[in-house]
Amino acid sequence: QVLDMRLKDAINTELSGKKKKTVELLMQGYPITEVAAKLNIARETAQNYKSLAFSLLRRKLKVVLRVLWIL
Fold first, then answer.
1. HSE of 20 in the Cβ direction (CA atoms, 13 Å)?
2. Long-range CB contacts (< 8 A, 24+ apart) of 42-46?
């Protein structure tokens, strides 16, 4: 539960605009091609946003897991 809250906070605070919307649509199950179409961006741009978001989440997850390990 703590982990879930921290990851959602990371998405809300560190992603903005179309990057955030890209992640939201992907989490709803839309394929990358539909995400790109819905946001009126190139498929490659949507893929880049996805990669950036997952990189951010991996970094945040590592920090959270370290904190939980210490506790």
1. 11
2. 46/22
Is 43 buried (19+), middle (13-18) or exposed (0-12) by CB count in 10 A?
A: middle
Low-confidence spans in the chain with pLDDT less than 50: none
In terms of pTM, does the model score above 0.90?
A: no
Q: Cα 69 to the chain's mean position, in Å?
A: 23
pLDDT for residue 7: 65
Alpha carbons within 13 angstroms on the beta-carbon side of residue 31 total: 2
CA 45 – CA 21 distance, rounded (Å): 13
Pick from 68, 69, 18: which is nearest to 47 by CA? 18
